[in-house]
Structures are given as structure tokens and as C-alpha cells.
Amino acid sequence: MTENEIKQESIAIQKSKIRERYKGINSDELDVIPALPQEDFYDNQREKRVAVYARVSTDDPRQTSSYELQKYHYHDVVSRRPDWKLIEIYADEGISGTSLQHRDAFVKMITDCKAGKIDLIVTKSVSRFARNVVDCIGYVRQLAALQPPVGVFFETENIYTLNSTSEMSLSFISTLAQEESHNKSEIMNASIEMRFRRGIFLTPPLLGYDQDNDGNLIINEEEAKIVRLTFFMYLYGYTCQQIADTLTNLGCRTKKDNTTWSVNSILQILQNERHCGDVLARKTWTPSYLDHKSKKNKQDRNQYRQRNHHEPIISRDDFIAVQHLISNAKYGNKGLLPELHVITDGVLKGFVPINPRWAGFKSKDYKAASESVTEDVNSISSSCITAQSGDFDLRGFEIARAQFFDTADRISMTFSVNGIKFSTEAIRKLNDIVGIEMLVHPTKLLFAVRPCTNENRNSVQWASPQNGRIKPRLVSGTAYLSTLYDIFGWNPTCKYRVIGVLKKNENTSLIIFNLHETEILIPSDVLDSADKKEQESKKPLEDILPFTEGAKKNVLAYPADWVNGFGNNYYSHSQARELAAFSNNKEWGVHLDGVPYKESELQITDSDDICKSIDELMNDMKQEVNHERNNHVE
Predict the structure, then answer these.
(1) Closest Cα partner for 106 from 87, 130, 126?
(2) Residue 606 vs residues 82, 339, 610, 612, 613: alpha-carbon distances, Å
């Protein structure tokens, strides 16, 4: 018998055994133990402990009738069933059904079910129970999995969740309920957008104002005193905590009639543009209609500002000044209005000193300050260099870039979004000083470092003593580094390393960095992502070329145009931007201080007037409190 015949015979035997097995046995030899009958919703043989869930989605008084009708209706429904015992009516009023946030009654009901207190939940419809498909199906399944299981009866749809055929219908109807909420959300957003476009703004309660019958803001003089005092005290140099303590001690009342003030309540007053007569609509927005979590609107949606919308309590210039102070207070710069300075003469002409604690200025402000004292950089043409008699003709020769050699012992600085770090050699070249001032020339893309004392408000500590030696330390740059990255056109996910040049004479030392020539340190995950995109698009990366390979945290790269040569032409290098202004036959003027770029355009209330107003307002408030106390005693 061949191998194939043996295999076929084996298969035939297996099939014969299977057929024999499935003939079964004599029914007389088999005892059947019947299952308990599935619970029938309409079975009235067993008492059920019933919970009723009711919900309305807004606090509108007109919805109160719906809310009350639901409760009394189910009182009647339960009383008509002798087998039902009402445990509790769980009711949420003024709550959306798209999420469980703030649905305290619903959460308590589920907890009671898990504790074995409830057998059945009765509610009007799927949309009352939940408008979120995941929540609806998820909780129905959780309740059905309990021992004993808890069913939900949706009266309108006539669905009982413990029936085996209920889930498909429930899934379909809950999906419709969720989509209905989505549609309502879109309609509401569209309505709000149309209102804002026509200058019809929402007018929530605001300290210092009342509303007339048309919703217009009308100054409430008693509350306006609190607002004025808050702004004037902050402009005068008081902290938010000191202001809050003062208002609490004076017995001033918040818009919600509280007498205890907090830092947050003070900040809300100081940052609300309505106090200067303006309205900024849509400061926040809600990305998802399911969770209703609002986010700060960072140009994710249209915003609308209307100036002079209503009568102001404080001037717009005072309001703007306070915003500058709040912004800079985050970085320890208290009590000073920010002001850009620019060097107007010497080799650092056009450089703008960097204040490490001023966050309010943007790249356009730095550029405007620099250009206010320099010519248009695009209009300057390089002069022609001619060789002297007997000199070598070095046309065609290049000065190799320092980055192509070992940079461990060179003057360098590394930028990241977290801060700036200088090399040990840079610190050594400036004689191990600890404090420096940083300056930037935004049009020429130059960066300078010069020694300074602690009295200089721009002073930063770039080094610290360790075991008798001076070591580099990270110079924090949260307040200004994003602006520098914008000026230089850099990618915030990368680090940038720059080689510097020391310039020194008998009296002065400083370091100049040319930001046109930087090495780039790219995080490996960013490069991996770029490689995947490159493979998908079949296009080469144009901006960067890797300098090293392998699994590293950062990959060193350099600009693609460096591949065309080792460096700059010899004669171009002799005119390098960071060297061109220096000459031994003239004064450098390195120690010149910057002058204000321009006078402040803000007409801020004079400090003497502010001090006088603070005294007057506090005296008025004390008299009012005493008057109220005397009336209360009488």
C-alpha cells in the first residue's frame, strides 16, 4: 500500500469516528436539568427595588417644569406596580448628558447599584440616561454584570437592558442621541459666532458693573472703587496677595458677596479687559462636546475685540501697563515696566541688551529697536579687498570652519528652549567672571556677551564656583528664548551650538557669536520621524544633513550649504560680520549702556496721583464699613 493510500485510509477512519460520536445517545440515559427562566420585565411575581433617574440639561427656570414632571410622573408609575418598591429618585438638574462631569446623582445611583441596593433603574429615555455612546453602553454592561444583575428600562424606547436582544437597539439609539448633542453643539457654536461677528457679546456678571434691561454694562460706583483700588495698588507695587489681604481687611465684597479675597480673584480683576471699556470675546473654547472641558483660545478659534464697548473704570493705558507687569512678574521682574534699550554708538551699535525677566517683547520689537539706530542692512554692500604689493594671492582659498575640528576647548555656546550654556573656555577667556550681559543684533544675527556687575538689571550668572573652580551653569531663558528662536528662525525642538570669537584690548573683553553659522543638535526621535516622512514622500531632507550616525539622544547636523566647501572665502572671512566693526585705532565703546528705544506710548497715571487715589479710596471704604456697622448696631 502506497503512502498516499495509507493517508487516505487514516482520514476515512477519523471521519467514521466523528459520525459515530455525533449520533448521540439514547435520551432515556440523559437527565436534563432545566435552567432558571430569564427574568421578564413584566413579571410581577418578585418584588423589585426600583430607582428612578431624571435629568434636565439647563438651569433655565423654564426647564424646572420638565424636571418636576419627570419626578412626579415616575412616582405615579412606580405606585401602579405592586411588585415595585421605590428606593430613591436620583435627579440631576442643569447638567449635560454628554459626560459624567458634575452628574453627582447619576454617580451615586451607580454606586448604590454596586452596593446591591437596587434591582431596576427606570428612566424616561436613552438621551436622559446618557448622550455619550461609550458611557451609555459601558454602564449598561457594568450593571448587567453585577450579581444580581441590574437592568435599565427606557420608557420611551421600550428597551429593557437585561433582554438579550436589547444591545443592538440601545447602541443605535444612543448613537442617535450622541449625534443629536453634536448637532446642538454645532448649532450653538454657529449662533455664538454670528453674534460675535455682529458685536453682540455675552455679558456675565462683573465686579464694578451692573446690567440694565438690555444687558448693557453700567458702572456700579461702590464696586468700581474696589476695582480702581486694585489696579492702583498693583501699579504702585503691591503684590496680589497684599491687595487680597487689604480688601479682606476692609470688608470689601466680591461679586458673589464673599468677604474673603484670594490671589486668583485679584488676578481675575486685573486681567479682565472689560474694566478698561473693551470686550474680548472667546477667550476660551471647548474642543469636545463630550467632555465640555474648556481650553485657553490660542488662536484656535476666531476672537473678537471691540474697543470702547462701554464706559471704563480705569484707563486703557493703565490696564496695558498692568498686563506688562503681570507678565514680567512671572520671571521675578517686579514693579518695573518693561522697556527695550539699544546701543547707539561704538562697535556694539544696533545691539539690543536682553533683560532675562522681560517676556512681553516679540521679535519685531527687537528688530525695530535695532533698526532705529542702524542703516538698512540690505543696503550695505561689502567693500572690495585688494592685496598689497608682495602679499600672497589667496583668492580661491577658504578658512576652514572651526566646527569641523574638535570644539571641546573652543569658545562656544549652546541654545535650547530651556536655556543657554556657555563652554568652559568662554568663561576662562573672560577671566572667570561670574556675571555677564547678553546682547543681540537681530538684523545681522549676531550675539554678544560682555562682563557686567550685579547692579546691572540685565545681569545673568553664567558660571558658579565649584571646588575652587569656575564651572558653566545653565542660563535660564524661559522669558526670552522663544523670542530669540523666532528672531533666528530656529526650530524649537532642536539645540543650536555656535562658535565664538574673543575680542580684547587693554581695557575691554567681549565675545561675539555669528549666528549665521550654527551646528544643530537634533533629537533622535525628531530625525526618525523626518526619515519616515522622507521615505513616504520619496523626497530628500533639504534643511539638514546628519553629521553623526548611531543611537544617540541628539544627532549633530549642519546646514546643507556647508557641503559645498570647508568655509568662507579668505577675503570674505577677513570681513566677517563679528570682526568688521573692530579696529585698534579707535575706541570700541564696549561699555556703553543702552538707551531707551523709544519713549513709552502709555500715558500711565502718575505715581503721586496713584498714591493719593489709594489713600482716598481706602478712607472711603473704611467709612462705609463703619457706617454699615453702626447701622447694624442700631
Answers:
(1) 130
(2) 80, 17, 6, 10, 11
Q: For residue 423, what pLDDT is reported?
A: 92
Element containing residue 421 per DSSP (H, E): strand 419-422
Contacts of 610 (CB under 8 A, 6+ apart): 232, 235, 236
Q: What is the DSSP string of 239-293?
A: -HHHHHHHHHHHT---TTS-S---HHHHHHHHT-GGGGT-EEE-SEE-S-TTT--
Decide: 352 and 596 in contact? Cβ < 8 Å. Answer: no
Least Cα distance to 98 among 122, 129, 121 occurs for 129
- What letter represents residue 488's amino acid? F
Q: Which CATH architecture has domain 48-181?
A: 3-Layer(aba) Sandwich (3.40)
Pairing of strands 398-400, 295-296: unpaired
User: Which parts of 455-548 are beta strand (E)?
Assistant: 460-461, 463-466, 469-472, 475-476, 495-504, 509-523, 544-546
Q: Which of 3.40.50.300, 3.90.1750.20, 3.30.450.90, 1.10.10.10 would CATH assign to domain 199-337+600-634?
A: 3.90.1750.20
CA dihedral 99, 104, 109, 114 (to 10 degrees): 80
Nearest partner of 240 among 216, 267, 217, judged by Cα: 267
Contact at 8 Å (CB) between 272 and 168?
A: no
Say if residues 356 and 439 touch (Cβ distance below 8 Å): no
Which segments of the chain have a pLDDT < 70? 1, 36-45, 57-67, 94-102, 131, 287-292, 330-338, 360, 375-408, 525-553, 558-587, 598-602, 628-634
E-state strands within 114-188: 120-123, 151-154, 159-160
CA distances 85 to 20, 50, 65, 106, 478, Å, are 55, 6, 25, 19, 63
Indicate the DSSP class of residue 497: E
Whole-Å CA distances, 338 to 113, 329, 443: 60, 11, 22
Question: Do residues 590 and 510 make contact, with C-beta atoms less than 8 angstroms apart?
Answer: yes
Collapsing DSSP to helix, strand or coil, 147 comes out as coil
Give the Cα separation of 610 and 203 in Å (integer).
Answer: 29
Q: What is the pTM of this model?
A: 0.51
Within a 10 A sphere around the Cβ of 373, how many other Cβ atoms?
Answer: 17
Residue intervals of the chain classified under CATH 3.90.1750.20 are: 199-337+600-634
Q: Which of 351, 367, 354, 338 is nearest to 601 (CA)?
A: 338
Cite the residue boundaries of each domain of the chain with CATH code 3.40.50.1390. 48-181
Cell numbers representing residue 297 in the block: 483660545
Tally of CB atoms within 10 A around 441: 26
Q: Using omega within 30 degrees of 0 as the cis cutoff, is the peptide bond preceding 559 cis?
A: no
